[in-house]
Inverse folding.
C-alpha cells in the first residue's frame, strides 16, 4: 500500500514557566513517515490522550518520568491502527495502545504496543475508563486508600477521568457517604444526578474547608487527593481517626511559579493517626486484570458511568491539553484524529 509521506507531530520547543503558552512553548511540525523495520509497526493514531502528568514532563525537573526532549515529538498515550507491520502477532488493521501520542503517525517496536479491540470496548475507553486513569482510580482507592465498606470518601477533581471513577467505585463497594468537589455547578449536578455521589460542591464558590464540613458532618475516612493545596488542608481537618489519604495528584500546583503553601494543620496527623501515601499508577499494574474484569462488568451493566470530552484534529492537541488543565473537560479529555 502507498503510505503517507509526512506526519504532523507536536514538539516542545521551549520549557514553560507557569502556564504554558501554546505559541511560545509548542510547535506542530512535519516529519517523514518511516517504514517499519523488523519487529516494528507503523501506526496511524486515532485517539490521543492529554493528561495532567504531561505538564511535569514539560519541565526539566527530575521526576518519576523523564522530561520531554526539546525539539522532539512529545510522548503520551494513544490508540491507533496498524498500517504496516514487520512484527509477529501484529497485522494491518489491528488497533494498538501505545505511548507515541501527540502525532498522526508513529513507527516503533511492537513490543511497546498492546493490542486492543473495538469489539470488546470503544477504542477511546482504553485511554480512559478502562485505561491508565481507570486503574489509577481503582488501585488508589482500594489499595492505597485501603477503602473498606462503610467508609465515608471524599474525592477532589471529582468530575474528571480519575475522580469520577473513584466516587462511583466507592459507592459500588458500599461507601457510607461519597462527597465530590468540582469546579462548576454543572459538574456538581452531574456528580450527584448521574454518578450517584451523595453530595458535591463547587470549590470555586466558597472555602473548601467550610463546604466539606457541611457536606461531611460525620467526617471522612478516605480522601482521594487530585488537587492538593486548600483541598488537602480541608480534608485533613475533616478526617476521622485512622483515616487514609491517597495522594494521586496536586493539579492546583502544576503551573505554580513559587513554592505553594503546605497544609497548615499537619499536626492533626498525629492525634488522628492518619496515613498519607503517594500513589503512582505504574506500581499497580498487577491489579490490571482484576480492574478490567470488575470495572468492565460495571460498565457493561451500566452501574458505572463515564463521560469523555473529545476535541477533533491534531492541530487542536495543545489547546485540548491546556483546556484540560483549566477544567474544560468532563471525564477523560481526548483528541480524535480522522480514521
Ligand atoms: P482530569 O481530572 O480529567 O482533568 C483535570 C481536572 O483538574 C480539570 O478538569 C479540572 O476540573 C481540575 N482542576 C484543574 N485545576 C484545578 C485547581 N486549581 N483546583 C481544583 N481542580 C482543578 O484529569 P485526570 O487525568 O483524571 O487526573 C486527575 C489527577 O490525577 C491529576 O492530579 C493527575 O495528575 C492525577 N493522576 C495521577 C496519577 C498517578 O499515577 N499518580 C495517574 C493519573 C492521574 P474542575 O473543573 O473541577 O476544576
Amino acid at each position: 500500500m502507498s503510505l503517507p509521506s509526512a506526519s504532523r507531530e507536536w514538539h516542545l520547543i521551549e520549557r514553560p514557566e507557569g502556564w504554558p503558552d501554546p505559541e511560545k512553548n509548542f510547535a506542530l511540525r512535519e516529519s517523514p513517515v518511516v517504514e517499519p523495520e523488523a519487529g516494528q509497526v507503523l501506526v496511524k493514531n486515532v485517539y490521543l490522550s492529554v493528561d495532567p502528568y504531561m505538564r511535569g514532563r514539560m519541565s526539566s525537573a527530575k521526576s518519576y518520568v523523564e522530561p520531554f526532549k526539546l525539539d522532539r515529538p512529545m510522548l503520551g498515550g494513544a490508540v491507533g491502527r496498524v498500517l504496516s507491520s514487520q512484527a509477529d502477532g501484529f497485522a494491518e488493521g489491528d488497533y494498538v495502545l501505545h505511548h507515541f501520542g501527540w502525532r498522526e503517525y508513529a513507527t516503533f517496536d511492537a513490543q511497546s504496543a498492546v493490542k486492543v479491540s473495538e469489539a470488546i470496548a470503544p477504542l477511546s475507553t482504553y485511554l480512559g475508563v478502562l485505561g491508565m486513569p481507570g486503574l489509577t482510580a481503582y488501585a488508589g482507592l482500594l489499595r492505597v486508600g485501603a477503602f473498606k465498606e462503610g467508609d465515608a470518601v471524599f474525592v477532589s477533581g471529582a468530575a474528571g477521568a480519575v475522580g469520577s471513577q473513584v466516587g462511583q467505585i466507592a459507592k459500588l463497594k458500599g461507601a457510607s457517604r461519597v462527597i465530590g468537589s468540582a469546579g462548576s455547578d454543572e459538574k456538581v449536578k452531574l456528580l450527584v444526578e448521574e454518578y450517584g455521589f451523595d453530595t458535591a460542591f463547587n470549590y470555586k464558590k466558597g472555602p473548601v474547608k467550610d463546604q466539606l464540613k457541611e457536606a461531611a458532618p460525620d467526617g471522612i475516612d478516605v480522601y482521594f487527593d487530585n488537587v492538593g493545596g486548600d483541598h488537602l488542608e480541608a480534608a485533613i481537618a475533616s478526617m476521622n481517626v485512622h483515616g487514609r489519604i491517597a495522594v494521586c495528584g496536586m493539579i492546583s500546583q502544576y503551573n505554580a511559579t513559587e513554592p505553594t503553601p503546605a497544609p497548615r494543620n499537619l499536626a492533626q496527623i498525629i492525634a488522628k493517626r492518619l496515613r498519607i501515601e503517594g500513589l503512582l499508577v505504574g506500581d499497580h499494574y498487577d491489579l490490571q486484570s482484576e480492574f478490567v474484569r470488575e470495572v468492565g462488568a460495571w460498565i457493561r451493566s451500566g452501574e458505572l458511568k463515564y463521560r469523555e470530552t473529545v476535541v477533533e484534529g491534531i492541530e487542536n492537541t495543545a489547546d485540548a491539553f491546556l483546556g484540560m488543565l483549566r477544567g474544560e473537560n468532563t471525564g477523560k479529555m481526548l483528541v480524535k484524529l480522522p480514521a
